[in-house]
Amino acid sequence: MATELRHRAPAQTVDVPGPEILTGAKTIQPVVGSHPSGKEKHGWLVQILRGLSALMFLLTCSTAIHLTQLIGAPLYWVNRDLYDGYMTLTKQSFGLLIATLTHWWSPTTIRISGDASVADQIRKRKDGRVEFTFPERLIMIANHQIYTDWLYLWWVGYANSPGMHGYLYIILKESLKYIPILGPGMMFYGFIFMSRKMAVDQPRMAHRLGKLKTVHTTPSGTKYLDPMWLLLFPEGTNASRNGKIKSTKWAEKIGVKDTEHVLLPRSTGIYFCLTELKGTVEYIYDCTVAYEGVPRGEFGEELFTLSSTYLRGQPPKSVNFYWRRFRVADIPLEDQEKFDVWLRERWYEKDELMEQYITTGRFPPSPSDAVTKGHPGFLETEVRPRHRFEFLQIFVVLGVV
Questions:
Q1: CB-based contacts of 251: which residues, under 8 Å, 6+ apart?
Q2: Above 50 in pLDDT, residue 358?
Q3: Dist. CA 401–CA 396, nearest whole Å
Q4: Cα(159)–Cα(154) distance, rounded to whole angstroms?
Q5: Distance from C-alpha of 174 to C-alpha of 365, rounded to nearest angstrom
Q6: Considering 12, 249, 357, 370, which has the largest number of Cβ atoms within 10 A of its Cβ?
Q7: Residue 349 half-sphere exposure, CB side, CA atoms within 13 Å?
Q8: pLDDT value at residue 176
Q9: What is the C-alpha to C-alpha distance for residues 101 and 131, in angstroms, rounded to an integer?
Q10: What confidence tens digit (pLDDT) does each residue in 2-48 have?
């Protein structure tokens, strides 16, 4: 992969528009001080109305989902499998909330490509939506660019066939569980909260991962595992100026090459997850994420804030995914130091992918004709629900009660 990237054609031969204007051999940077999404689309009055309406929608739907969770909570002491299935439905509701909220208040283009390992698992539907056919059990890893990365990756579960937005599990920092309504809701979802102290986190992770690898048996004697998409950000935090400084110091401390566009990954958490789940999950799916218009040396979190995205009408013009797949059996899990090297090499490849994106405005195109027919190496879509009023499903249980 790294060799392939190093021998790609120069940037000026790529005939596609990007966040920069490409003219011959010159790359013209965006005007300093301008926002990559252009001018503010709304005045202050509209911004206030947008903010109030988005907040009302989020709180109304989140409260309905949490009340639905509370209604079903007693199932925990009646039938554990029934309880888990019920909470899966409420998690699907939140995935639907995300898709609707983004479509209405923060529309953006999703541009997707990947290497040969996933080329036959991503296709364009006749209605313009993209459909993924990723397996029901996988570990998903990604570079962490801005706070809302998880939102777009949760949408991938929604767009998957079969839908996996009810089976997503995220490892995230402990402080998030104290957010009113959303925090308790995420605890019902079985998310794994980390204090970043392994002595404290390891027993928690072992308990939660133990549930995710529990083998069930049907009345006929057939054994099966529950669906699971486990999402991890090995960098531990989103890319920022302070995070980049810490990452550079860490590279110097352990004597390895630094990265330019991503933070160096930490292997302890993902190594523990892989060793605990070994034998129950076959693949790691790796997504490299880039946001259109972030200049070299800048950070997306400073440009695509909640205010600019949802109030001022300045969401990213495009969110770009490049997918790869790795077989767990081929990963060196017998020794953590070897795994650390393996993971770091994948992040160096990510850094090269990000370099190509910043230079050309595109990740490498997908190689498969099955995927790229009619779409020159890239599939484009948007985050949106299947139907305009699909979000009303969120209120079904409350309506029945």
A1: 257, 258, 259, 264
A2: yes
A3: 9
A4: 9
A5: 38
A6: 357
A7: 20
A8: 82
A9: 20
A10: 444 444 433 333 333 333 333 333 343 444 457 776 666 667 787 78
- The type of residue at 214 is T
Counting every residue written for the chain, the total comes to 401
Distance separating alpha carbons of residues 266 and 390, to the nearest angstrom: 39
Between helix 149-159 and helix 80-105 the angle, nearest 10°, is 110
For the four alpha carbons of 267, 272, 276 and 277, in that order, the dihedral sign comes to: negative
CB 155, CB 381: distance < 8 Å: no
> What span, in angstroms and rounded, lies between the C-alpha atoms of 292 and 308?
15
Higher pLDDT residue, 321 or 367?
A: 321
Helix axis angle for 44-72 and 80-105, nearest 10°, is: 170
pLDDT (mean) for 320-331? 97
* Torsion angle (degrees, nearest 10) of CA 281, 134, 267, 183: -100
C-alpha distances out from residue 316 to 102, 265, 326, Å:
11, 25, 29
Judge contact between 336 and 307, C-beta under 8 A.
no
**Distances, alpha carbon 131 to alpha carbons 103, 163, 188, in Å:** 17, 10, 28
pTM here is: 0.87
If one counts every other C-beta atom within 10 angstroms of the C-beta of residue 59, the result is 13
Q: Where does residue 203 rank: exposed (0-12), middle (13-18), buried (19+ CB within 10 A)?
A: exposed
Q: Which two tokens stand for residue 333?
A: 């899990």
- The DSSP output letter for 379 is E
- With residue 207 as reference, give the H or E element that holds it: helix 198-212
| DSSP-assigned letters across all residues of 127-152 | TS-EEE---SEEEEEE---STTHHHH
Across the range 259-272, mean pLDDT stands at 93
Q: What pLDDT was estimated at residue 219?
A: 87
Phi/psi of residue 230, nearest 5 degrees: -100, 115
* Helical H segments across 43-118, by residue range: 44-72, 80-105
Read off the pLDDT of each residue in 339-347 and give the average, rounded to a whole number: 97
